[in-house]
Amino acid sequence: MSSSNEYTLKNDILFKALFGKLGNEVYLKSFLEALLMIVIYKIEIITEYTLEQLAKEEKGGRLDILAKINDSIYVNIELQIRNEKNIEKRTLYYAARLLTEKTRKGEKYEKIDSVIMINILDYELLEFNEFVSDTVTVINKHREYETIKDQKFYYIELPKFRKSNIDIDAPLNQWLALIDNNEEMIKMAMVKNTTIKKAKKELEKITADPSIRGLIKLRDKWERDYDNGIACAKDEGREKGSNDARKEMAKEMLKNNEKDEKIIKYTHISKKDLNKLKLQMA
Question: DSSP label at 136?
Answer without folding.
Answer: -
